[in-house]
Amino acid sequence: MKEPKKIRIAIDGPAASGKSTTARLVAKKLGYLHIDTGSMYRAITLKALRETIDASDEQQIVALAQRCRVELEPSEFGNRLFLDGKDSTSDIRLPRVTSMVSLVSSYQGVRDILVREQRRMSAAGRVVLEGRDIGTVVLPDAEVKIFMIADVGERARRRKKQLALAGIDADEKKLVRDIEERDKKDSTRHMSPLQKASDAIELDTSNLTIDEQVDFIFAKAQSIINWV
Ligand code: CDP
Predict the structure, then answer these.
(1) Which class is domain 8-212?
(2) Taking the model in full, what pTM does it have?
(3) Could you tell me if the CB of 155 is within 6 A of ligand 1?
(4) Angle at Cα 57 formed by Cα 54 and Cα 62, nearest 5°?
(5) pLDDT tens digits for 164-186?
């Protein structure tokens, strides 16, 4: 019998489209590693805030990204993110990080450092990566590529629930505005903009349950893994 294939799954999409939860569950079902690339950009942004470095100073931000140690450690409830050895899993989701992260991630020097690391972590396969540029830049030859979209109102509701779990009470209308603004910045930036790869499958999750999303991607992956 042939060995199952060790594939790479790329999941891209706009803010709060449900990528993280879906990617985490798909990875769990397959016994794969889940790599949330957004959390890595968030970690660099958090470090800039901690060191009170002006996010518009590209040179300083790139230098900071170079000396920053970002590690993802799988746990039962999803990845823990360690920044320079300190568990920063909750802090990277703070609203002030969210509002600055698009600027920090628009710098090519920052992207070069993180993309190199993401490719290194994916080299052996058996990974689910999620972000904005996985299918287009990080792993253009990934075996499964998904582009997740959802209605902005639904995305704001999901984000409100997620923040409530972290004890943050957010205004839904403001969340809609913030999400639209971040999508605009991420899609119109010069470097690796948020964009559907030509060979990615578009998955509209507005009316899907998490289980339905996970099953859809799992079935696609299984058909390739067991393909001989
Ligand atoms: O979870 P959410 O949808 O809020 O975003 P995220 O995946 O945590 O990503 C945060 C930000 O990082 C995005 O708005 C992008 O600006 C940036 N990002 C990126 O540029 N490239 C990636 N591969 C992943 C995230």
Answers:
(1) alpha beta
(2) 0.93
(3) no
(4) 105
(5) 988 889 999 999 999 999 999 99
